[in-house]
Specification:
Elements: E1 49-55, E2 57-62, E3 68-78, H1 87-100, E4 111-112, E5 117-121, E6 128-140, E7 160-178, H2 180-186, H3 193-211, E8 215-217, E9 220-222, E10 229-233, E11 236-249, E12 252-265, E13 268-269, H4 270-278, H5 288-295, E14 299-302, E15 308-310, E16 313-318, E17 323-326, E18 341-344, H6 345-352, E19 364-367, E20 376-377, E21 382-384, H7 396-405, H8 410-424, H9 430-434, E22 437-439, E23 444-450, E24 456-458, E25 462-464, E26 487-491, H10 498-511, E27 521-524, H11 534-548, E28 555-559, H12 569-580, E29 583-587, H13 595-608, E30 615-616, H14 617-620, E31 632-640, E32 651-658, E33 667-674, H15 697-709, E34 715-721, H16 728-747, E35 753-760, E36 767-769, E37 781-783, E38 794-798, E39 810-817, H17 823-832, H18 848-865
Helix pairs in contact: 2-3, 10-13, 12-18
GO molecular function: RNA binding
InterPro entries: ArgoL1, ArgoL2, Argonaute_N, PAZ_dom, PAZ_dom_sf, Piwi, Piwi_ago-like, RNaseH-like_sf
Keywords: Repressor, Ribonucleoprotein, RNA-binding, RNA-mediated gene silencing, Translation regulation
């Protein structure tokens, strides 16, 4: 669970706070935060078969609950009172402070967050104090004076000396945080200090990791151990570490430990990195413009002197032509002054350092100096320092490699976690020991339940019973197949016989109950356009289609030349879905077509054209509990953000809503772009200035529901994805309020009953079946005791069949339940919604509405990414900045023929 921030001390909080989530430019009405609050757990579920489970929560005992954490603000500055911002230096200063002034601190150990706060168990002898701390750094005595534009390494080191620097540390008392507040929270008593106390405990663990020289990333830490590095290509490695956080649970306080992964630059010679990063064999082919951009701010270690520097840029000239003035000094035992000479970096290292540069003599040098005082290092003498985070987005190849290489079977993951508890001895920290905290070394054991898989209905009213989360259409027909008699196939230069593909698809369709006529046209891309820009290729293909067909077909199958992330996909989808209003199915078929592949394609096509592949048995019989008697809409909401660090890329909000009550398998999507990195959805309710119309998302979904059912929904179930615990209040008091206003605007004042559920996949709780070392927990495993929140209404559900790696359960938080589900009815509904995903024949890991919203946002994002209407933007998004409003004309509006379909399947 994410914790609330420690008291603001004028600087950054102990851990990064969540971004501001209220949309920029939006001024919602003032809402009393107490107006809507999260409900408490009304009861526990009972249905399902009991199963013995283990989880990566380690039980924590607090033997001295009356201890109090004292929080102090810390301000570290240089002697001129300029603040010290570097966290690494800050930690060194505070470590030195304890060594120098232990008696003034009464021998008390403290936990320092690396920025503005420290914590002790019990008070320090004073409330305010100022210290002077002196750090001594070992430096080399130089035989040659410093000179402008010279190589960094001037001369041989004759001996080492110490350079002393003084810092001023001001420490002021801030507040008290009683440890007992955690125990009160575990017993259901609201206390403001409980989250702060948990945050302090987490900071203590981070300090432990910092003292072991780990890379710290939020609440995860990573050791400099090459055995933990896995190369994923492009000069990037996945570094395996551990996540740790204290969590209040129904079973008491626990320490959640999990395997964590971050991306780092692969350490090693800079030249090797550039070759791998640019995908070339010979270093002579390095693109130096790309190299300059990539290398900036990376840290390197010189192999000949073992010193570390940060790269500022590259020299404009190669090493053999890069001159600087080498100032002389008296020779040994004489007073004769040597005249300055102009010398190249290459000659300097050859004559004065006895280093023959071979690999990089004709390459640019690294500039590790200041803007007006460059200092140069030959490339071959530099290696990338270990544990440097790589924060750019991964390529499709890197992402696939990461997924493949980071998988861990349940047994392997359990062994790593239990070994880490033995190895690192978290509770041996003096601060935790002072609190009487002890931590068990074994995974927590408890009982869970396995819900029965829902029965499905397929064609001919035939029953289909999933087995271990899977089913198939072998010798079965689709529930409601759509006849395909007006379609075409286009091929963007893929090595594919589209005549054979269409024949095999028709043949497979007959077996599944779909009548597929011969396509009206089979169109191959003209050779002269194969190397043109994607938008041009799409335009020319559309012209070919118009020339060969009398009117627009209902479906176009598009064969892409690449298996994944083809640059044709975005402009093709935009042209078909936005401009022409034609449903399209993109494929990249394997060399050998098989029934499974063709069936999966048909499932998507049938859903897009309005068919239904399968239904829940209770859905077919209109017996879905709680929903069957009252018009109900089910919504899924998600927001997709651009790559990390891209503030120019807008976020995309997508909401899907069911519209064919009492069915819960058919959905319509509405999508809007919004301010970059904003998580709260801006356009749920968007009345026009004159109050005549509402252009918001909810209006679209309500219109579709009413036109289908001839009534408005009396109940709305909202599944919200992508928000953390710290944002739950905003979901309740901003987003839900906007939905209510949109409904009232549409209905004239009525308000339906709501159930609001947040879905989380990005958490660190894992489930293991006790006594089964190699298998994942069976699909349908649900947990609503022991490791859940002590009072809030949440549960874990692992609905999918985890065949590879360790399954991660979805974490569902029920924020509001005005509808009044029983625990069993709600958990079974959530479980059933994992089986209505029309694109596959397996239960998925989260409810289908959330997945559909995610697919919608991703598809619209690709339409925008490949929009080449402007050449001034490398991404095609325009140039609006983070947090700014997004012009309406930048948003692709779906064609009216497409908007109500499941185009996202």
């Amino acid at each position: 669970m994410e914790k609330s921030g420690i008291q603001d001390l004028g600087g950054s909080p102990a851990l990064p706070p969540p971004p501001s989530d209220i949309p920029a430019g939006v001024k919602p009405e003032r809402v009393d935060t107490a107006k809507r609050a999260m409900i408490s757990r009304p009861e526990f579920g009972r249905t399902g078969n009991r199963i013995q489970l283990e989880s990566n929560h380690f039980k924590v005992s607090v033997n001295s609950p009356d201890e109090i954490f004292y929080q102090y603000s810390v301000l570290i500055s240089y002697k001129d009172r300029t603040a010290v911002e570097n966290k690494v230096i800050g930690r060194k200063i505070m470590d030195k402070l304890y060594d120098m002034y232990s008696s003034e601190l009464a021998g008390k150990r403290f936990a320092y967050d690396g920025e503005k706060a420290l914590f002790t168990v019990g008070p320090l002898p004073w409330n305010k104090q100022e210290f002077t701390v002196v750090l001594e750094e070992s430096i080399a005595k130089r035989e040659i004076p410093s000179r402008e534009g010279s190589p960094v390494e001037p001369g041989k080191r004759s001996r080492r000396s110490f350079y002393s620097k003084s810092y001023i540390v001001e420490i002021n008392f801030a507040t008290k945080i009683p440890l007992k507040s955690v125990l009160l929270a575990l017993n259901g008593y609201e206390t403001e200090k409980a989250q702060d106390a948990l945050r302090v405990l987490d900071i203590i663990l981070r300090q432990q990791a910092a003292k072991r020289n780990c890379l710290l990333v939020r609440q995860s830490f990573f050791h400099d151990d090459i055995r933990m590095f896995t190369d994923i290509g492009g000069g990037v490695s996945a570094c395996r570490g551990l996540h740790s956080s204290f969590r209040p649970t129904h079973g008491g306080l626990s320490l959640n430990i999990d395997v964590s992964t971050t991306m780092i630059l692969t350490p090693g010679p800079v030249i090797d990195f550039l070759r791998v990063n640019q995908g070339i064999q010979n270093a002579r082919n390095i693109d130096w413009l790309k190299a300059k951009k990539m290398l900036r701010n990376m840290r390197v270690m010189t192999t000949h002197s073992n010193r570390e520097f940060k790269i500022k840029g590259l020299s404009e000239k190669p090493c053999t032509e890069l001159y600087f003035t080498l100032k002389g000094k008296p020779g040994d035992g004489t007073h004769v002054e040597v005249q300055p000479e102009e010398i190249t970096v290459y000659e300097y290292f050859r004559r004065h350092r006895n280093l023959e540069l071979t690999a990089s003599a004709y390459f640019p040098c690294l500039d590790v100096g200041k803007p007006r005082k460059p200092n140069y290092l030959p490339l071959e003498l530099c290696s990338l320092v270990s544990l440097q985070r790589y924060t750019k987005s991964l390529s499709p190849v890197q992402r696939a490699s990461l997924v493949e290489k980071s998988r861990q079977a349940p047994l392997e993951r359990k062994e790593i976690l239990t070994n880490s508890m033995e190895k690192y001895q978290y509770d041996k920290d003096p601060l935790l020991d002072a609190c009487g905290i002890s931590i068990e070394k074994q995974l927590t054991k408890f009982a869970g339940r396995v819900l029965n898989a829902p029965k499905l209905k397929v064609g001919g009213n035939e029953d289909c019973i999933p087995q271990y989360g899977k089913w198939n259409f072998n010798r079965k027909r689709l529930y409601n197949p759509i006849k395909i008699d007006d379609w075409a196939v286009v091929n963007f230069s893929a090595r594919c016989n589209i005549d054979h593909l269409s024949f095999e698809l028709s043949k497979c369709g007959r077996n599944k109950g779909i009548v597929i006529e011969r396509p009206h046209a089979l169109i191959e891309e003209e050779r002269q356009y194969r190397t043109a820009k994607p938008s041009v290729r799409v335009e020319k293909m559309i012209n070919q289609i118009r020339a060969k067909l009398r009117g627009p077909p209902k479906l176009i199958m598009c064969v892409l030349p690449e298996r994944k992330n083809s640059n044709i996909y975005g402009p093709w989808k935009k042209e078909c879905l936005v401009e022409l209003g034609i449903r399209t199915q993109c494929v990249s078929p394997p060399n050998q077509l098989n029934d499974q592949y063709l069936t999966n394609v048909l499932l998507k096509i049938n859903s897009k054209l309005g068919g239904i592949n399968s239904l829940l048995e209770i859905e077919d019989a209109s017996r879905v509990p709680v929903i069957k008697d009252t018009p109900t809409m089910i919504m899924g909401m998600d927001v997709s953000h651009g790559s990390p660090g891209r503030s120019d890329v807008p976020s995309i909000a997508a909401v899907v809503g069911s519209h064919t009550w009492p069915f819960i398998s058919r959905y319509r999507a509405a999508v809007r772009i919004q301010s970059s990195r904003v998580e709260m959805i801006e356009s749920l309710f968007k009345p026009s200035p004159n109050g005549v119309d509402d252009a918001g998302i909810i209006r679209e979904l309500l219109n579709e529901f009413e036109s289908t059912n001839r009534c408005m929904p009396s109940q709305i179930i909202v599944f919200r994805d992508g928000v953390s615990e710290s944002q739950f209040n905003q979901v309740l008091n901003y987003e839900l309020e906007q939905i209510i206003k949109a409904y009232q605007y549409r209905s004239g004042g009525n308000v339906p009953k709501f159930t609001v559920i947040v879905t989380q996949k990005n958490h660190h709780t894992k489930l293991f079946e006790a006594g089964s070392s190699h298998k994942n927990v069976p699909p349908g495993t649900v947990v609503d005791t022991n490791i859940v929140h002590p009072t809030n209404y949440d549960f874990y559900l692992c609905s999918q069949n985890g065949r590879i790696g360790t399954s991660r359960p979805a974490h569902y938080h029920v924020l509001v339940d005005e509808i009044g589900f029983s625990a069993d009815d709600l958990q079974n509904l959530v479980h059933s919604l994992s089986y209505v995903y029309q694109r596959s024949t397996t239960a998925i890991s989260i409810v289908a509405p959330i997945y559909y919203a995610h697919l919608t946002a991703a598809q619209v994002g690709k339409m925008m990414k490949f929009d080449e209407s402007t050449d001034t933007s490398s991404t095609g998004y325009g140039s609006h900045s983070s947090g700014g409003s997004v012009p309406d004309h930048e948003q692709p509006r779906l064609h009216k023929n497409i908007a109500g379909s499941m185009f996202f399947c």
